[in-house]
Write a structure and sequence with these properties.
- The strands form 5 sheets. The chain has a 7-stranded mixed sheet. The protein has a 6-stranded mixed sheet with strand order 11-12-13-14-19-20, with no helix packed on it. A 3-stranded antiparallel sheet has the order 2-1-3.
- About 20% of the residues lie in helices and about 30% in strands.
- It has a single domain, classed as Ribonuclease Z/Hydroxyacylglutathione hydrolase-like (Metallo-beta-lactamase, Chain A, 4-Layer Sandwich).
- β17 and β18 form a beta hairpin.
- The chain has 6 helices and 20 strands.
- It is of the alpha+beta class and about 270 residues long.
Length: about 270
Protein backbone atom coordinates (compact mmCIF):
# COMPACT_ATOMS: atom_id res chain seq x y z
CA UNK A 1 0.00 0.00 0.00
CA UNK A 2 1.38 3.39 -1.02
CA UNK A 3 0.93 6.12 1.61
CA UNK A 4 0.93 9.83 0.80
CA UNK A 5 1.86 12.75 3.00
CA UNK A 6 -1.20 15.01 3.13
CA UNK A 7 0.93 18.16 3.50
CA UNK A 8 3.05 17.78 0.35
CA UNK A 9 1.64 14.76 -1.50
CA UNK A 10 4.88 12.78 -1.53
CA UNK A 11 4.21 9.04 -1.83
CA UNK A 12 6.06 6.53 0.36
CA UNK A 13 6.25 2.76 0.12
CA UNK A 14 4.06 0.80 2.53
CA UNK A 15 7.06 -0.56 4.42
CA UNK A 16 8.34 2.96 5.17
CA UNK A 17 7.62 4.24 8.71
CA UNK A 18 5.11 7.02 8.22
CA UNK A 19 5.92 9.18 11.23
CA UNK A 20 8.10 11.51 9.19
CA UNK A 21 8.10 13.05 5.70
CA UNK A 22 11.56 13.88 4.39
CA UNK A 23 10.20 16.57 2.08
CA UNK A 24 8.20 18.37 4.79
CA UNK A 25 11.02 18.30 7.33
CA UNK A 26 13.23 20.27 4.95
CA UNK A 27 13.07 24.04 5.58
CA UNK A 28 11.66 24.70 2.11
CA UNK A 29 8.43 22.98 3.17
CA UNK A 30 6.89 22.53 6.63
CA UNK A 31 5.37 20.01 9.02
CA UNK A 32 1.81 21.14 9.84
CA UNK A 33 1.26 22.40 13.38
CA UNK A 34 -1.15 19.51 13.95
CA UNK A 35 1.48 16.98 12.85
CA UNK A 36 2.13 14.87 9.78
CA UNK A 37 -0.94 13.29 8.18
CA UNK A 38 -1.20 10.36 5.76
CA UNK A 39 -3.65 8.96 3.21
CA UNK A 40 -3.51 5.73 1.20
CA UNK A 41 -3.22 6.16 -2.57
CA UNK A 42 -6.41 4.16 -3.16
CA UNK A 43 -8.28 6.34 -0.64
CA UNK A 44 -7.08 9.46 -2.43
CA UNK A 45 -8.29 8.11 -5.77
CA UNK A 46 -11.67 7.23 -4.28
CA UNK A 47 -12.35 10.59 -2.64
CA UNK A 48 -10.77 13.16 -4.99
CA UNK A 49 -11.11 14.03 -8.67
CA UNK A 50 -9.08 16.06 -11.17
CA UNK A 51 -10.25 19.26 -12.81
CA UNK A 52 -9.03 20.03 -16.35
CA UNK A 53 -8.49 23.44 -17.96
CA UNK A 54 -7.71 24.10 -21.61
CA UNK A 55 -5.22 26.91 -22.26
CA UNK A 56 -4.90 26.19 -25.98
CA UNK A 57 -5.43 23.23 -28.29
CA UNK A 58 -1.97 22.02 -27.32
CA UNK A 59 -1.80 22.89 -23.62
CA UNK A 60 -4.04 21.53 -20.85
CA UNK A 61 -3.65 21.74 -17.09
CA UNK A 62 -5.09 19.53 -14.37
CA UNK A 63 -5.40 19.95 -10.60
CA UNK A 64 -7.03 17.93 -7.85
CA UNK A 65 -10.38 18.89 -6.30
CA UNK A 66 -11.02 19.40 -3.52
CA UNK A 67 -7.64 20.94 -2.79
CA UNK A 68 -4.99 18.39 -1.79
CA UNK A 69 -1.53 18.95 -0.28
CA UNK A 70 0.37 21.81 -2.00
CA UNK A 71 -2.41 22.15 -4.58
CA UNK A 72 -0.17 22.60 -7.62
CA UNK A 73 -1.33 21.84 -11.14
CA UNK A 74 0.28 19.65 -13.77
CA UNK A 75 0.30 20.30 -17.52
CA UNK A 76 -0.18 18.07 -20.52
CA UNK A 77 1.66 19.56 -23.50
CA UNK A 78 0.63 18.04 -26.83
CA UNK A 79 3.12 18.41 -29.66
CA UNK A 80 3.49 16.79 -33.10
CA UNK A 81 6.44 14.87 -31.66
CA UNK A 82 4.70 13.52 -28.56
CA UNK A 83 2.94 14.47 -25.34
CA UNK A 84 4.77 15.73 -22.24
CA UNK A 85 3.45 15.71 -18.68
CA UNK A 86 5.00 18.67 -16.89
CA UNK A 87 5.08 18.49 -13.10
CA UNK A 88 2.95 15.97 -11.28
CA UNK A 89 -0.08 15.84 -9.02
CA UNK A 90 -0.74 13.05 -6.57
CA UNK A 91 -4.15 11.90 -7.81
CA UNK A 92 -4.13 9.59 -10.82
CA UNK A 93 -7.73 8.43 -11.01
CA UNK A 94 -9.45 6.33 -13.66
CA UNK A 95 -11.02 9.30 -15.43
CA UNK A 96 -7.66 11.03 -15.75
CA UNK A 97 -6.04 7.90 -17.11
CA UNK A 98 -8.81 7.40 -19.67
CA UNK A 99 -8.70 11.00 -20.86
CA UNK A 100 -4.92 11.05 -21.25
CA UNK A 101 -4.97 7.79 -23.21
CA UNK A 102 -7.62 9.30 -25.50
CA UNK A 103 -5.34 12.31 -26.03
CA UNK A 104 -2.47 10.10 -27.13
CA UNK A 105 -0.87 9.08 -23.84
CA UNK A 106 2.35 10.47 -22.37
CA UNK A 107 5.73 10.19 -24.10
CA UNK A 108 7.80 11.93 -21.43
CA UNK A 109 7.37 13.20 -17.88
CA UNK A 110 9.45 16.06 -16.47
CA UNK A 111 9.20 17.65 -13.02
CA UNK A 112 10.42 21.04 -11.90
CA UNK A 113 11.55 20.14 -8.37
CA UNK A 114 10.99 17.64 -5.51
CA UNK A 115 7.87 19.27 -4.03
CA UNK A 116 5.97 17.97 -7.07
CA UNK A 117 7.40 14.44 -7.24
CA UNK A 118 4.25 13.11 -5.46
CA UNK A 119 3.18 9.87 -7.20
CA UNK A 120 5.47 10.27 -10.22
CA UNK A 121 6.40 6.59 -10.09
CA UNK A 122 2.74 5.57 -10.57
CA UNK A 123 2.29 8.00 -13.46
CA UNK A 124 5.43 6.77 -15.21
CA UNK A 125 4.39 3.13 -14.86
CA UNK A 126 0.78 3.74 -15.92
CA UNK A 127 1.85 5.45 -19.16
CA UNK A 128 5.14 3.61 -19.71
CA UNK A 129 6.84 6.99 -19.87
CA UNK A 130 10.41 8.00 -18.99
CA UNK A 131 10.60 10.27 -15.96
CA UNK A 132 13.17 13.04 -16.36
CA UNK A 133 14.58 14.45 -13.10
CA UNK A 134 17.61 16.64 -12.61
CA UNK A 135 20.46 14.73 -11.00
CA UNK A 136 21.19 17.51 -8.51
CA UNK A 137 17.89 16.76 -6.74
CA UNK A 138 18.22 12.97 -6.63
CA UNK A 139 18.62 12.93 -2.82
CA UNK A 140 14.92 13.84 -2.48
CA UNK A 141 13.61 10.74 -4.27
CA UNK A 142 12.03 8.53 -1.61
CA UNK A 143 11.09 5.60 -3.90
CA UNK A 144 13.10 4.21 -6.79
CA UNK A 145 11.59 3.51 -10.21
CA UNK A 146 12.96 1.91 -13.38
CA UNK A 147 11.43 4.82 -15.32
CA UNK A 148 13.63 7.51 -13.73
CA UNK A 149 16.13 9.12 -16.10
CA UNK A 150 18.54 11.58 -14.50
CA UNK A 151 19.79 14.47 -16.57
CA UNK A 152 22.70 16.77 -15.82
CA UNK A 153 23.92 20.16 -16.91
CA UNK A 154 21.79 23.18 -17.72
CA UNK A 155 19.51 21.94 -20.51
CA UNK A 156 17.93 18.81 -21.94
CA UNK A 157 16.11 18.55 -25.27
CA UNK A 158 13.13 16.28 -24.57
CA UNK A 159 11.94 16.34 -28.18
CA UNK A 160 11.95 18.87 -31.03
CA UNK A 161 10.90 22.33 -29.71
CA UNK A 162 10.66 21.13 -26.05
CA UNK A 163 13.62 21.80 -23.77
CA UNK A 164 14.19 21.58 -20.02
CA UNK A 165 16.26 24.41 -18.55
CA UNK A 166 17.90 24.24 -15.13
CA UNK A 167 17.56 27.59 -13.38
CA UNK A 168 18.31 26.45 -9.82
CA UNK A 169 17.19 28.76 -7.03
CA UNK A 170 14.40 27.06 -5.12
CA UNK A 171 16.28 23.73 -5.48
CA UNK A 172 19.71 23.12 -7.06
CA UNK A 173 18.09 21.17 -9.89
CA UNK A 174 15.09 23.49 -10.17
CA UNK A 175 13.96 23.47 -13.79
CA UNK A 176 11.47 24.99 -16.19
CA UNK A 177 10.12 23.72 -19.51
CA UNK A 178 10.48 25.85 -22.64
CA UNK A 179 8.27 25.14 -25.65
CA UNK A 180 9.65 26.87 -28.73
CA UNK A 181 6.34 27.45 -30.47
CA UNK A 182 5.07 30.82 -31.67
CA UNK A 183 6.32 33.48 -29.25
CA UNK A 184 7.49 30.73 -26.91
CA UNK A 185 5.86 29.22 -23.83
CA UNK A 186 7.44 28.71 -20.42
CA UNK A 187 6.07 26.21 -17.88
CA UNK A 188 7.73 27.39 -14.70
CA UNK A 189 6.44 25.39 -11.73
CA UNK A 190 7.32 27.68 -8.86
CA UNK A 191 10.96 27.98 -9.81
CA UNK A 192 9.62 31.28 -11.13
CA UNK A 193 6.63 32.19 -8.94
CA UNK A 194 3.87 34.23 -10.58
CA UNK A 195 2.58 36.99 -8.30
CA UNK A 196 -1.14 37.26 -7.40
CA UNK A 197 -1.92 39.90 -10.02
CA UNK A 198 -0.25 37.78 -12.74
CA UNK A 199 1.64 40.89 -13.85
CA UNK A 200 5.02 39.89 -12.43
CA UNK A 201 7.01 37.14 -10.74
CA UNK A 202 9.26 36.53 -7.77
CA UNK A 203 11.85 34.04 -6.60
CA UNK A 204 12.16 32.34 -3.20
CA UNK A 205 14.20 29.62 -1.52
CA UNK A 206 11.21 28.72 0.67
CA UNK A 207 7.76 30.01 -0.21
CA UNK A 208 5.80 28.83 2.86
CA UNK A 209 8.54 29.97 5.24
CA UNK A 210 9.21 33.20 3.28
CA UNK A 211 12.97 32.71 2.98
CA UNK A 212 14.44 34.60 0.01
CA UNK A 213 17.14 33.81 -2.50
CA UNK A 214 20.37 35.79 -2.63
CA UNK A 215 21.00 38.54 -5.16
CA UNK A 216 23.68 36.39 -6.79
CA UNK A 217 21.28 33.47 -7.28
CA UNK A 218 18.50 35.61 -8.75
CA UNK A 219 21.03 37.36 -10.98
CA UNK A 220 22.16 33.95 -12.24
CA UNK A 221 18.55 32.95 -13.02
CA UNK A 222 18.06 36.12 -15.05
CA UNK A 223 21.33 35.50 -16.88
CA UNK A 224 20.22 31.97 -17.78
CA UNK A 225 17.05 33.42 -19.31
CA UNK A 226 18.86 36.04 -21.42
CA UNK A 227 18.72 34.06 -24.65
CA UNK A 228 15.36 32.33 -24.03
CA UNK A 229 12.32 33.72 -25.84
CA UNK A 230 8.86 33.29 -24.34
CA UNK A 231 5.70 35.34 -24.65
CA UNK A 232 3.63 33.27 -22.22
CA UNK A 233 4.43 31.80 -18.80
CA UNK A 234 2.32 29.37 -16.74
CA UNK A 235 3.06 28.94 -13.05
CA UNK A 236 2.41 26.16 -10.58
CA UNK A 237 -1.01 27.26 -9.38
CA UNK A 238 -4.38 27.96 -10.96
CA UNK A 239 -4.65 31.53 -12.26
CA UNK A 240 -0.87 31.99 -12.52
CA UNK A 241 -0.96 32.64 -16.24
CA UNK A 242 1.01 35.44 -17.89
CA UNK A 243 -0.35 35.46 -21.42
CA UNK A 244 1.66 38.24 -23.04
CA UNK A 245 5.09 39.85 -22.72
CA UNK A 246 6.05 37.17 -20.19
CA UNK A 247 9.81 37.47 -20.61
CA UNK A 248 9.75 41.24 -20.24
CA UNK A 249 7.72 40.88 -17.03
CA UNK A 250 10.07 38.23 -15.64
CA UNK A 251 13.19 40.28 -16.34
CA UNK A 252 11.63 43.47 -14.97
CA UNK A 253 10.50 41.64 -11.82
CA UNK A 254 13.98 40.24 -11.36
CA UNK A 255 15.50 43.71 -11.53
CA UNK A 256 12.94 44.93 -8.98
CA UNK A 257 13.87 42.03 -6.69
CA UNK A 258 17.56 42.90 -6.94
CA UNK A 259 16.86 46.58 -6.35
CA UNK A 260 14.96 45.75 -3.15
CA UNK A 261 17.92 43.74 -1.87
CA UNK A 262 20.29 46.61 -2.65
CA UNK A 263 18.06 49.10 -0.84
CA UNK A 264 17.83 46.81 2.20
CA UNK A 265 21.59 46.39 2.34
CA UNK A 266 22.09 50.15 2.13
Amino acid sequence: MTMLCTACGTAYASDTPNQHCKICEDERQYVPAAGQGWIAFDALRASYANKWTGHSDALLSLKTVPEFAINQRAFLLRTPHGNVLWDCIANLDDATYTLIVALGGIDAIAISHPHYYTTMQEWAEAFNAPLHLHARDRQWIVRDSPYIRFWEGDSLALMPSVTLLRLGGHFPGGSVLHWDEGEGVMLAGDIIQVTPGAHGVSFMWSYPNMLPLSAATVGDILHRLDDVTFGQLYGAFEGQDIREQAKEKVMRSGETYLACLRDHQA
